[in-house]
Amino acid sequence: TAMAVCDTIEGPIVELDDGTVTAVHEVDRATELLPRIRRIVDLGELLVGYGEFLENNRTLVPASYSIDWHDAELAGAHADAAALQDSLAQLLERFRPGACPIVIEYSGRLARGLLALAPQWSVQPSAELIAALEELLGAAAIKVLYAASPEGPQRSADGR
Q1: Which residues contact 99 (CB under 8 A, 6 or more apart)?
Q2: Strand partners, 39
């Protein structure tokens, strides 16, 4: 538990009907913006004196997820994503042009989806490409699928 002297708290952060995001710290401003609020992005802070918990022998609950934590996580994720994007582009460039399209399956905490890269990013599949992708992304992240043919069922390059 950390305690600090405090004489102000942050108000809520809201998104308005025109898409702008603003912090609201005064009651008059909140009343003025109320009809235009599309959603509340962050509820703001609540200041409760520590003595209220100490006198009643209550355990303090852990801090909530804050906008500051979100900003820090987002900054780190963008840096990681940009570096990965650059590495993947450099790797695929060595195997272009080709007839094999690249599809990226994204699965994050808040979203999932398939991203088919533009045709100019199609590659020539090879064991060297698969090994390089496995080194960059991990073996479990790579799947090579071939179109179904009259000869038999669909198989991946590694026999799976």
Answers
A1: 122, 124
A2: 15
